[in-house]
Amino acid sequence: MRELRVETEHPYTVHIGQGAVKLLTERYGDLLGAADRVVVIADSQVAELHLDKLLDALKGLEPKVLRVPAGEQAKSVESFMDCHSFLLSENCSRNTVILAFGGGAVGDLSGFVASTFMRGVPFIQVPTTILAHDSAVGGKTAINHPLGKNMVGTFYQPRAVVYDGDFLETLPENEIRSGMAEVVKHAFISNEGWLDQLLAYDSLEAVSGEELEGHLEKGIAVKAAIVEEDEFEGGVRKFLNFGHTLAHAIEAHLGYGRMTHGEAVVLGMAYALELSSSPELPRFLNWAKVNQYPLERLKDMPFEELLPYMKKDKKSTAASLNFVLLGAVGQPYIETIPEQRAQAAYDTLRKTIKEMI
Ligand SMILES: O=C(O)C(=O)C[C@@H](O)[C@H](O)[C@H](O)COP(=O)(O)O
């Protein structure tokens, strides 16, 4: 079992490894045992596959379980209110502990619920996807608004992240693609050797379970170091948003859940590399093509339809479009891009993709 500390204002540990859920009672038994209620907010699809294992690990605690829609559909006002209604109907109090069981979406929703129920109750992230190595760490919680992704949310750190590798074994292909995008993002902003290694795999299927665990640990370490330096995103934390300005615009434009988050992030990273005039773009596009990321979808998305969302990005201001760009691998920076240049780069990228597929 591997452990990483995240030294934020309220520090916590990320536990990674097969069978990690047993730590819920071994390490967090005091917190959970002292709660008047333990509430599991579970992704409904994940619950079908893995809830028994989680409940087994929570034996004796008699948790209440609320199933929410799978994936991005969970991050709605309706789900948010359903969670609060459930907590109230179960007579939960400030002494209740919430467990988020599922991928990034259920983690974001549950964290937001935990941060707002009676002005805040403790929560533990129990992630079940590759993508969640990113979203479960760092304390960003949110639901979506039709006008922009993650627009309603808080910074609220979990008490622990218990990341059990067994849950990753049933991930569908598009979820593997989605999660690996965030792993590659962590490599782009931190470490050239690691990026070389990730882009050199013949395909995502060629990554063994053991190697994956190592990559996830590296990704979490990159993220934890940045979050420790800038928990509330005044500066360097923005680098974790590499590829996200366009990605979030695509997700909002298409409708949440129509493209996985990580797949959209791959399109967004390609765009950021184009804006950076980065020599990394060709091999990155090739990796994305080999692994069947939906590059071709850009052709149906005119720049003018994405622009309003990009203007609302949290890194932008009313007057400017701000992107995370890359000087070289491991050297991210923020730049304000004039609209015309943003449009020209988008058109160039679409042309390059059209020629290669
Ligand atoms: O933790 C962060 O900071 C990130 O930006 C990580 C992103 O990969 C993640 O998707 C995050 O939820 C995006 O946050 P947002 O503030 O751009 O909504």
From TrEMBL:
The organism's taxonomic lineage, starting at the top: Bacteria, Bacillati, Bacillota, Bacilli, Bacillales
Gene behind the chain: aroB
Keyword hit for Metal-binding: yes
Positions of Zn(2+) binding: E182, H244, H261
Record protein name field: 3-dehydroquinate synthase
Function: Catalyzes the conversion of 3-deoxy-D-arabino-heptulosonate 7-phosphate (DAHP) to dehydroquinate (DHQ).
Cofactor binding mode and count: Binds 1 divalent metal cation per subunit. Can use either Co(2+) or Zn(2+).
EC nos: 4.2.3.4
Domain 3-dehydroquinate synthase N-terminal, chain residue ranges per copy: 67-177
